[in-house]
Give the backbone structure.
Amino acid sequence: MEENSAFSVDKVEHYFQMMGEMALGFGTKLLLAIIVWIIGAWIIRRIVNLVDLAMTKKKVEVTLHQFLLSFINILFKAILIIIFASMIGVETASLIAMLGAAGLAVGLALQGSLANFAGGILILFFKPFKAGDVIDAQGYVGTVQEIQIFNTILRTLDNQRVIIPNGLLSNGCVKNLFIEKTRRVDMTFGISYGDDVLAAKAVLQEVMDADDRVLKEPCVDIFVSAHADSSVNFVVRPWVASENYWPVYFDTHERVKIAFDKAGITIPFPQRDVHIIEAK
């Protein structure tokens, strides 16, 4: 009995020793993991702050700025969690595989939304247009009200609200109408075949010269553009500041009509002569 009792005490002492060694080993791993976590969290904060400072200096769009900061923070913290888990002995290979499979499934299910998401990132980063610009895209012309991560919101010229997915905008043609400081106003005016072409050209030149909004350089182009069915057509192309495009366009049409009337120049309209032949 004494031998059995001594054997049992030895086994208990051995188990306690093993547990102590395991606890010491795990404690050492845990302590190192905590130190790595503290240092990693500090490094992540530094990286996020540096990126924040760089994007602030570059005047990155606010929406993209906030998104990138959140994305970088989450990405590095996820990596730090995996490193921490592996240091304390957690098997991370299966966890990473599960996250990868889940990410693939979500990506396939949301591929349309992901395309819009990627399009929003490209628009916010490369800035083909910004809030306040007037664009022509996907059959709509309007002012950009807001660029979101998934959609861009336009306000059309007749005050309608249009929401366009960013995937379409990033992969399609977008015309930014007033991003340049100057624009050419293309207009066409017709006179009758019986009118004096040179006199009409002089009247058009006078109308252009009288408008202070028309730039002197480049000079105004005034040419005969076509011999149409019922008129001789002039093309008139003045250059103006972008904000004066529509005022000059509409005012010029009114002024040309008044000037043609004063000069006795006719603006023709389509006519058809009908000849009636009496049957014999």
User: Anything to note?
Assistant: Residues 87 and 189 are 80 Å apart (CA to CA). The mean pLDDT is 83. The longest strand covers residues 140-147. Strands lie at 134-137, 140-147, 151-156, 161-165, 174-176, 182-184, 187-191, 221-227, 232-237, 239-241.
